Amino acid sequence: GGSSSSASSGSGWSVPLSSEPAPPPEGERAPEGITVESIDAVATDYGGTLEPSEGGFGFEMWGGTERALVERLLPDLTVRPLSPAMRDLARRLLLSAAAAPEGRATIDLMPVRAERLRRLGNAGDIAAFLEIVPAGSFDAAAARLQIDALLLEGRRADACNLVRNHIRAFDADPYLQKSFAFCQLVAGDRIPAMLAADLLFEQGEVDPAFFALMNALDGAQGIAVESLPEPTALHLAMFD
């Protein structure tokens, strides 16, 4: 199966960055008696979709703030405060285009921000933000979130185009497999779509609503979804 180019933590979002500098190629070593110190890579993980004119906090918003502090506090950012004003501040903090805080990077802040945005629940913000996230910061969790955001925005064609890319990297992820099978079916590729659904069923995937809806979309009569206790964006798109 495919795998992400980034290592992920248990939450599926914090992506460690290598801090080991590559050795200089042969023939480019420093002359004897001269000490060469490596320069830490410049973190670029605070691009955003909000400019100052749109409510962003500005390019220098992390000026004077140690990266270690940001890395410790941002994953725990409260995104469901009682005050609408506090929710707006959290949104602006997460989406502002800014220089990354200075200091050695131990996690990638892009997926951390995406996870906090997911908890805010604005599909449009999530979809727009994930469009600027570099491919190297994606893991299966980020891929699922991007597909969900697009489906909730009613952008099924965009979601299906992207799931074809994500499934190459994360072909063992059941949710992406189901999304891909759905996209195949609505594109008219009935046989591979239903074969994929049958394979998921045989592998023990537990999602009665998905299998019922796939059969209904394939033309079966008398299909009923008796309950849907935890509807996903994919389920909702299949009802549409």
Could you list the spans in which at least 5 consecutive residues all have pLDDT below 50?
A: 1-21, 36-42
Quick one: overall form? elongated
Question: What is the structural class?
Answer: mainly alpha
| Major β-sheet annotation | none
Helix content: 40-55%
- The Rg value, from CA coordinates, equals 22 Å
Q: Output mean pLDDT.
A: 85
> Number of DSSP helices?
10
Total number of beta strands = 0
* H/E element sequence: HHHHHHHHHH
Strand composition percent: under 5%
* First-to-last CA distance: 31 Å
Protein architecture, described:
This protein is mainly α and 240 residues long. The chain contains ten helices and no strands. It has helices spanning 67-73, 84-95, 109-120, 123-131, 140-152, 156-169, 174-186, 190-202, 208-217, 233-239. Helix 4 (123-131) crosses helix 5 and helix 6 crosses helix 7 (174-186).
Structural descriptors:
240 residues, mainly alpha, elongated, disordered N terminus
